[in-house]
Amino acid sequence: MGRRLLIAGNWKMNGLRAELAELDAIAAAVASQDTGPGELLVAPPATLLAAAREHLPSDVSVAAQTCHHNTRGPHTGDLSAHMLQEAGADSVILGHSERRTDHRESDEDVCARAQAALAAGLRTIVCVGESEAERRANETLTILGRQLDGSVPGEVTAEKLVIAYEPIWAIGTGLTPTPHDIAELHAFLRNRLALRFGHAFASCVRILYGGSVKPSNAAEFFALDDVDGALIGGASLKATDFLAIARSA
Ligand code: PEP
């Protein structure tokens, strides 16, 4: 199958120009081939996309954290996929639970944004994940299936699609699912992709785990069969932690 691990850092609404020093540290590690076997990706705030592209070597991906579904128009404060691509992004995170909650993004919204991203040539990293209440109500599989089906556009290619499984209750909490649960849910997601797009497609798509990934627990997740990397929030803000996670791959 040969899926290369993807180690993705989501800076969220963190990062001023002073923090570009963290990217210089990542660039130095890449130059000395001291980053582990995975592909690296950093998703800074939109204000730092252009600078991030300049500070990082070309084999480190730069991602935006969302995009608008339209190409242009009267959408004050929003950014189109093409604008983000022009600013330096090659990828975009879509449907993060913070976007789904704070901005009420539905699966349909995420799908429309993904279509716009694909039209602009961006790789899409589509996030899915259940809440604590949904988990307790044994609704995890229903929620993940619905989000996956509704958020991923039919015209996507396997190279332009990454899925991130991020249980909401694990984000920023220090809590994580058991390795057994992660393995089971990643297998569920891959099977669901196979049902819709076929086995060859599904076996190429990388499925990341996200939620309180740290240098101390990353290796355990990377060892799991259907886990193809990590989407990292808090621990991606310091290059030392981010690189320690990458090296544990
Ligand atoms: C995230 O928000 O994508 C995330 C996984 O955050 P953290 O690693 O801080 O839990």
Keywords:
11 helices; eight-stranded parallel beta barrel; alpha/beta; 8 strands; TIM Barrel
Number of strands: 8
Shape: globular
How many domain regions?
A: 1
Strand order in the largest sheet: 1-2-3-4-5-6-7-8
Strand content: 15-25%
Calculate the terminal CA-CA distance, rounded to whole Å: 17 Å
Q: Low-confidence runs (pLDDT<50, min 5 residues)? A: none
Structural class of the helix and strand makeup? alpha/beta
| CATH T-level fold name | TIM Barrel
Number of H/I helices: 11
Helical content (DSSP H or I, runs of 4+): 40-55%
CATH class reads: Alpha Beta
Q: What gyration radius follows from the Cα positions, in whole Å?
A: 17 Å
Helix and strand element order: EHEHEHEHHEHHEHHEHEH
| Name given to the CATH homologous superfamily | Aldolase class I
Secondary-structure blueprint:
Blueprint: E1 6-10, H1 20-31, E2 39-43, H2 49-55, E3 61-64, H3 81-87, E4 91-94, H4 97-102, H5 107-119, E5 123-128, H6 132-136, H7 140-151, E6 161-165, H8 179-197, H9 199-204, E7 206-210, H10 218-222, E8 229-232, H11 239-247
Parallel strand pairs: 1-2, 1-8, 2-3, 3-4, 4-5, 5-6, 6-7, 7-8
Helix pairs in contact: 5-7, 7-8
The chain binds phosphoenolpyruvate (PEP).
Phosphoenolpyruvate (PEP) is lined by residues 10, 166, 171-172, 210-213, 231-235.
